Amino acid sequence: MSPRAALVFLGLLFVPLLTWARGTLISGPMLGYQAHREALIWLETKDARTVSIEFSIQGRPESTRTLTVKAQPDTPAGVQPTKLVLPLLEMGAAYEYRLSIDGQQLSFPYPLQFRTTDQWEWRRDAPDFSFLFGTCAYLNDAAYDRPGAPYGKTLETFRLMAESGAQFMLWGGDNVYLREADFSSESGIWYRYSHDRATPALQKLFAVMHHYATWDDHDFGSNDSNRSFEFKETTLAAFKAYWGNATWGETGNPGVYGKFFWGDAAFMLMDNRYHRDDSSLDQERHPQKSQFGARQIDWLKQSLLQAKKLGHYPFKFIVTGGQVVTSFGGSSETYDYYRREREELVRFIQEEEIPGVVFLSGDVHFTELARRKIGATQWLYELTSSPLASGAFTSAGTVRADEPNRVAGTLVADQNFTQLSLSGPKGSRVLTIRCIDKAGVLRWQHGIDETELQ
């Protein structure tokens, strides 16, 4: 064989090798946070060298821009979660985008698009919008699950959520469930996050709306875990790698807590694990017992004051893993185990006249709406929404029959999610909550006028 023919032959051999060397998509894309002039797109790859995004304002091809980044180093699970931050976007604009891995464009059975925040403040009434809220998304993985009937009961809720038309999803904790084989090692933790994120039934939901998240015990470590968990720095790193919040904790005080604003609502996402004293600690003998830690509680107070002073946010949602207003009979880690801290927070809301506070919680594997009167006219509401996919607490109807704070008719002990909508003119905004079960049935609907929260 001549030297030229040998080169051609070798070249033909390398063509399939070059094709095989391209990276692959494992999961995503997922829309993370969005702002007036910025948005985050998340995806996960394997064996990729580069990830590229081409984005433009819909109907304006001349606005097309491209961003290419090197794929992230492999996690201990051998995959590459990657975040693409799109900067200096136009406000209130609808964008479309395309993704490529190592130069190969990807295709999806749904459109890839998002809209940036409109600057409505001082110009017009706040826009109407809706968002989803839910907790407890156990996804089966037979090799690592406990024996017996699978604890994950459905994936249908995720399809219904993707078709809801909501602008964003708020994940309130137990978004993944670390098993014993997971939380005993770093690689096990990273495996669980990658495995659950790649679930096919979740992909459309991640792509069609924005996502914000905080955690509870099962995303963080073992059941009912506290700040002593030995791999908490690993789970913090994994959580931050797989979710697209804009900020995480504060300098010198790590955690997943942070806040964001959407329309005329402020959202404070709390971290109830990283700094948590164990719930069994006697709070009479240990009066400083805390679920959030002193610095995070101070951050929450200052955040509530800031939202009040800005004046654009009649609704202020505080999102945390365990129940706050209600106390579920000792079988879950409610804020009743931290009564001093809870009453300190409620007293602060009263004394500083913070209007519009609504708690969003999960953990207990049933849904309910509760309320507690804290003044002559002001109510504190709490929506507990659970489970999305996990087993439900089917005995809730009898165990909690005498719960004094529950709004009648709102107990649902089945897989479900909630959709919250804000609508109406300034000064007369209404929060409407709808509970939808895994069959798509509307189980209840309740409206809260902003005047009830003042």
Task: Write a structural description.
- The chain is of the alpha+beta class.
- The protein folds into two domains: 23-115, Immunoglobulin-like (Sandwich); 129-453, Purple Acid Phosphatase, chain A, domain 2 (4-Layer Sandwich).
- The protein is built from ten helices and 20 strands.
- It has helices at residues 3-20, 156-162, 180-183, 186-197, 203-208, 217-220, 232-242, 294-310, 339-351, 396-399; strands spanning 24-34, 39-46, 50-57, 65-70, 80-86, 94-101, 104-105, 113-115, 129-134, 168-171, 210-213, 258-262, 265-269, 315-319, 357-361, 368-373, 379-384, 416-423, 430-437, 442-449.
- The strands form four sheets. The protein has a six-stranded mixed β-sheet. Strands 12-13-14-15-17-16 form a six-stranded mixed β-sheet, covered by helices on one side.
- A hairpin with a 7-residue loop joins strand 3 (50-57) and strand 4.
- Helix 4 packs parallel to helix 7 (232-242).
Count of distinct strands: 20
Mean pLDDT: 93
Instruction: List the uncertain runs.
Output: 12-20
CATH fold call of the largest domain: Purple Acid Phosphatase, chain A, domain 2
Overall helicity: 10-25%
How far apart, in Å, are the first and last alpha carbons? 88 Å
The order of strands across the largest sheet is 11-10-9-18-19-20
Kindly report the name of the CATH homologous superfamily of the largest domain.
Answer: Alkaline phosphatase D (PhoD)
- Helix tally? 10
Could you state the order of secondary-structure elements as H and E?
HEEEEEEEEEHEHHHEHHEEHEHEEEHEEE
Major pleated sheet: 6 strands, mixed
By CATH reckoning, the class of the largest domain would read: Alpha Beta
